[in-house]
Specification:
With 147 residues, this protein is of the alpha+beta class. 37% of the residues lie in helices and 36% in strands.
Length: 147
């Protein structure tokens, strides 16, 4: 009887130990998967950030009028097409005028134009969306000229 009791107690202790080890293994695996997923997301984000190697140039005439640019990025509109350049305009002087933007591919071939009306007071800054034709898919190594 004592042997059966000791055997049962030993099996119970071993089961608890196995259960605890399994739980630790599952937790470690979960942490590793979570960390890997986090690294993957960081890598994808980094890839997206680095993929926008485009240049945005502001004409000398606009610069002389007290306009400068901050951050610029390509985005998609309701049509889910990447045909919008969002440009952060900084105004040192009052501005009320229309500007034109052209986009060129890596070989210097023009593939899009748009215009936008700017109106702002001195000291203000805002993002302005330069919306190109829906057939214009803005490429990652483009050159934008705003004049």
């Amino acid at each position: 009887m004592k042997i059966k009791f000791l055997a049962a107690a030993l099996c119970l202790c071993m089961a608890c130990h196995v259960k605890e080890k399994a739980k630790e293994a599952i937790n470690q695996t979960g942490e590793a998967v979570g960390q890997s997923a986090s690294e993957f997301v960081k890598g994808v984000s980094s890839g997206i950030d680095h993929s926008f190697d485009s240049r945005v140039e502001l004409s000398g005439a606009l610069h002389n009028q007290g306009i400068s640019l901050g951050k610029c990025f390509v985005k998609s509109g309701n049509n889910h097409l990447e045909n919008i350049l969002a440009a952060y305009f900084i105004f040192e002087k009052d501005v009320k005028q229309t500007v034109h933007a052209k986009v060129f591919d890596a070989q210097g071939l023009e593939y899009g134009r748009t215009t936008v009306a700017l109106q702002s007071k001195a000291g203000e800054a805002t993002f302005v969306e330069l919306i190109f034709d829906p057939n214009t898919k803005l490429e990652s190594k483009s050159k934008f000229v705003i004049e």
